[in-house]
Amino acid sequence: MAAETTTQVTEEYKNLYPLHAAVIQNDATAASKAIQAVKGQKPSDVVRAGSAELMRRYNKRETQEEEDLDLFINHRDWRGNPALHLATHFRHHEMVKMLLKEGADPMMRNGGGFSAVQEAICSGDMELAELLSDAVAKSASDEYQNRMPKILEQLEKSPDFSCELKWEFKSWVPLLSRMLPNDVYRMYKCGSSFRIDATLVGYSALRCQRGNISFHLAGMDTKEPGRFTLVDHEKKIYDIVDPNEDTKPKNVKDLLDRPKIHRVQFQTNDVSFTPAKTFWGYERTERVAGFDTRVYDANHLDLMMLKRVRSKEVALPPPTLHPDYFKEAVKEGKGNGLPYSTETVKNTVKSFNGTVHMTDSFPYEIKDILPILEVIAPRAKHFARLKEFIELKLPEGQFPVRMELPVITTISAAVTFLNFQRERPNPDMFTIPSDYSSGKVHFNFDFTKKEEAEGEKAKQHE
Description:
It holds the Pfam family Ank. The chain is α+β, with helices and mostly antiparallel strands. It has helices at 11-16, 18-24, 28-38, 45-49, 64-74, 83-89, 93-102, 116-123, 126-157, 174-177, 252-257, 370-376, 381-390, 447-460; strands at residues 161-170, 182-190, 193-204, 207-217, 228-232, 237-241, 260-267, 272-275, 285-288, 291-310, 343-359, 399-408, 411-421, 437-438. It has 2 domains: 11-105, no CATH class; 147-462, no CATH class. Strands 1, 2, 3, 4, 5, 6, 7, 8, 9, 10, 11, 12, 13 and 14 form a 14-stranded mixed beta sheet that branches. Helix 2 (18-24) runs antiparallel to helix 3.
């Protein structure tokens, strides 16, 4: 049931953000008029200013008009909130449905780093949380399917290779650091197909689970281009999966019962890379994995953990916005989300000192690695962090043979490319053996979901 709105919207806010104002007031007619009014129009400066960090889906739109409408539907107001987040905060169910139908992106986050699903969880509204969770799962799957032809095309154009990717996890928390695992992923790329082998298949309660699994992407020359498969070689089973299936929470009710939500966010705005110096002031060089490399210091490499904790002893108050929300002076497009008065909000920033070893003699380009990371990132979140890091402004014309990057606020990783071979792997490696059968393959190695809490426990027991 929609909550009753008592918030008074100022005329200035209404003029600048007509869609957001209509959503706050739960005025479906005004919201529809605001959307119709911008169709065929170029986005205003206000819309563009609120869209600087947003859009994920431009390449899925067929016309410029559709892209411009996406900007309007999804742009943030001066407190950093898209219209969908406001509709969710006020628990306006029909407005949420209308915005999703018009193209609101359920995967977008507001200036505080929170998704609409998280706002629904904080509101305690099960129906909205499930509605938005379903929308996120569908959006992620649609985006993946729409991107797949381009991914396969990029893979097909890049040279074939095989290599190893060594992950060494560590932590500044002593107790946790001793318990962290390492693994060497073996990567093979042939045409538009790729395969990644791993032995670390799970990590829970500070214990690692070993196995022998592979990630397979079927290429353009197969019967099912773009098919993503997990293969367990010990059990001789395979599992055809949607790489984005983990975007939907398994148990929404369980999330609603938890007193807090958190979001770990990579701070990228101020990241820079500068040549590392020796004691005598010369640029540092080192030989890594058979390559002569220049060493760079990664500056302002920070992770922010945004945490909202709600009191379970106090009834949730009616949704509202403080009058200061509508003051012109707060036009920074950020904020802490849309917390209720019974919630406390805490932002913790952890700074990391990392280094990157770059070489100009690596027989591959970094842009050729990105399509592989894009496919595997939704299933292996540490690969998602690697993709984020590689997409930063690394020194041009060089390849990062070794990188140190944060994974979560208590864990970092050193990632090294080893034994690179620029030759075509055996095509048989990319087919599933005939004696394997269909079954559920379990891969549950994800620091971002579980180990944040365990890291906090370890830190408390130092």
